[in-house]
Predict the 3D structure of the following.
Amino acid sequence: MKILVINSGSSSIKYKLYKSAGGIGEFVVLAQGGAERIGISGASVECKKPGSEMEHQYLDLPDHKKAINAIFNMLTDPAKGVLKSLSDLAGVGHRVVHGGEDFTKSVLIDGSVVEAIRKNSVLAPLHNPPNLMGIQAIYELFPDMPQVAVFDTAIHQTMPPKAYLYGLPKDQYTAHKIRRYGFHGTSHGYVAKMAAKELKKPFEKLKIITCHLGNGGSITAFDGGRSVDTSMGLTPLAGILMGTRSGDLDPYIPLHIMETQHLSGEQVSAMMNKQGGLQGLCGQRDMRDVLAGRAKGNEGCIEAFDMFVYSIQKYIGAYAAAMNGVNVIVFTAGIGENNPIVREKVLENFGYIGLKLDKKANDAGKTVITSAISKVKAMVIHTDEEMVIAADTLALIKAKKKNEQ
């Protein structure tokens, strides 16, 4: 069975086409690519098949419907496509950023799901509306195609009230749903389970802290197979220092800036989300550039790197205390998987809990980067959010067909 995974943004669509390889959660990638500059001049679609160069087509893409249709035309091209027809496709899985409190797991999309995603757009105004555009485009073009929504927030719905509530008047939660939701859930859940599998121990018996470190980053604590706390909050702005996001702030700072500098809420939001983080501190948002500046003695880069590492250490320490211990610390995503210096610096403060880094294993990017005698394991696990979406989509489609028989 073949599954298409879509991540729909405001002016772009990314996709991966998978074929089930038989085993549970086993897939091969048949093609991947996307559509860029939707609604903007110079729009294009692209497709890359394993072992071949990326193919580009430049054409007019005024909306998501046209972009989705162009992607399908490329995938079913008689000469170069990887699908004989759209009947080869079992279904489409969508990444949806915010499910609020409505969804604790992935679901088949119907009218009620669409309405819930739309309702939760108030919590993710930059993400949910474009996610809905992708869903609507598929529906308009192929109304009988099964579609599945996989939510970034769903896995964190197991957090207890002490972790997700804020110290505000209770009606801010009961009436307005202001609470900690967390994000990157698909990635956190996947790497936590893969770590347990690699160690050949039951996921439900481990205390795991996962560090998803990319341009955006978050830390999650898993206890007994459940997310019990996570660093991002109502929005992805909270938590550790990120590429352009400030991370945790004194909550009065935005109000103070607005009052004293006479800036609008929109301007302060842009400052915190797009002009802060590593970018705001040293002018570099990419950790590779920060490290290059640090190696040259650039004070801004040194300071930004130290703050980044420190913010991660604080969350790891807090979650180890909250869970009364930790068995495994996992690093994933672009920085977490590819940057041994960051991993080494983050872990150097955890000797007190019995963690002993294996420097050679860490520098080589091995899966387990702690020594054999380390009481706490540290691991590097490659995340694969699209594959998780494909697996959930396939499982739900199979379950639906079984129920219809």
In short: The radius of gyration is 22 Å. The longest strand covers residues 27-36. The chain has a mean pLDDT of 93. The chain is about 40% helix and 20% strand.
